Amino acid sequence: MQPAGPVLCVLGELVVDLLPVTEAGAGPEGTAPQYVARPGGNALNVAVAAGRLGAPVRLLARLGTGPLAANLRRHAELAGVDPAGFVDAPEPVSLAVVGVGPDGSPDYGFHVLGAADWQWTDAELERVLPSDVGALHVGSISSWTEPGSAAITRLVDRLAGTALISVDPNIRPMLADGPVGASLGNDRAAVTRRLDALVARADVVKVSAEDLGWLERHASDLDDAARRWAARGPALVVLTDGGEPLRVARPDGAVLRREIPRVDVVDTVGAGDSLAAGLLTGLLDAGITGRAALEATSDEQLLALVDDAALVAALNCTRVGADPPTRAELAAAR
Predict the structure, then answer these.
(1) CB neighbour burial string for 62-86, b if at least 16 within 10 angstroms, e if fewer
(2) What DSSP state is assigned to residue 318?
(3) pLDDT in tens, 286-330
(4) Residue of higher predicted confidence among 290 and 98
């Protein structure tokens, strides 16, 4: 059933994250670590977070084969995500084996060659797109991996000017360059070129300092980077830097900094995705579904939305894996 009113469309990959059960150990010989399978992937995380926050959201995703595909679909549906955006695909579901460092940051090993996520066609996207798109969020692996990234770019080109376009590069270096990246048809130059085209058409960009470190190896001044990215086309750039303050930039404006809420961090899996969902949900709630409305929004109103989004991300970090808060939990935490 088509959601009422402008819809947040999230376009990207579905990934099964295998997360270590650290308290279970790795067996007497240290060779049998235990893992739990959890739904993941940038697009699924963003869509679920937005759904839990009450946004009308449709996840545009190619649902691959394998015993865990049904779990991915169910995870989205339980969050209130409109499942009409799923395309049943013959290729396998993507798998990520996740390790968690001492500081809670994730480390990934990917099993994605020939996976469903990057095989989009124009016809598939046209078939699952709702009639009233308020915002389209794209990013991560599917947005910079052929052949599907070309179809995604064409969709962004078509919707730019009629819906809010949001981009999150969400670089995974192992898949963007080197031997594994090459097996997917990726290298640094190609990935950068594909992302440049998306950023130039974007209204909102959420980018991490980690992404910048890969995309711009010479970038050291994050304030300058935020200004430069805002000058590339977006009306709003939000630059994250782990536990450091967010940087918020608009074209021809000063770079503003916002402190993030302090919480007891369990891990940071899905934090950036939760922040993006919180920001986009806030924009839609405020009726900001196009570039003109975004440009007319005051700094004060935008910063309030960014603060709310940061709280969504912080609450996610208090739980294992990508587990964003509901609208009620966010209201209570305010």
Answers:
(1) bbbebebbeebbebbeebbbbeebb
(2) T
(3) 999 999 999 999 999 999 999 999 999 999 999 987 889 999 999
(4) 290
Taking the C-alpha atoms of residue 303 and residue 181, their distance in angstroms, rounded to an integer, is: 37
Structure tokens at 90: 């013959």
Interior/surface letters 9-48, b for 16+ CB within 10 angstroms, e for the rest: bbbbbbbbbbbeeeeeeeeeeeeeeeeeebbbbbbbbbbb
Please give the Cα distance from 107 to 122 (Å, whole number): 33
Q: Give the Cβ contact number of residue 254 at 10 Å.
A: 11
| pTM reported for the whole predicted model | 0.93
DSSP 3-state assignment of 90? Answer: strand
Q: Other CB atoms closer than 10 Å to residue 314's CB: what's the count?
A: 21
pLDDT higher than threshold 60 for residue 1: no
Give the residue among 43, 53, 50 at the shortest CA–CA distance from 10: 43
Q: Identify the residue whose tokens are 């389209």.
A: 136
What does the alpha-carbon distance between residue 53 and residue 134 come to, in Å, rounded to a whole number? 16
Alpha-carbon span 3 to 65, nearest angstrom:
27
Q: At 170, phi and psi to the nearest 5?
A: 45, 60
In order of 141, 174, 192, 216, the CA distances from 189 in angstroms are 15, 14, 5, 11
Which pairing describes strands 15-20 and 35-40: parallel, antiparallel, or unpaired? antiparallel
List, for residues 154-176, the tens digit of each pLDDT value. Answer: 999 999 999 999 999 999 999 99
Neighbours of 328 (CB within 10 A): 11
Q: Residue 181: count other Cβ atoms within 10 Å of its Cβ.
A: 20
CB of 203 closer than 8 Å to CB of 165? yes
Can you tell me the mean pLDDT for 174-182? 94
Q: Is the dihedral of CA 2, 149, 16, 68 positive or negative?
A: positive
Sign of CA dihedral 144, 148, 149, 150: positive
The sign of the torsion formed by the CA atoms of 92, 118, 139, 328 equals: negative
Mean pLDDT of 145-155: 97
Mean pLDDT value across residues 99-127: 86
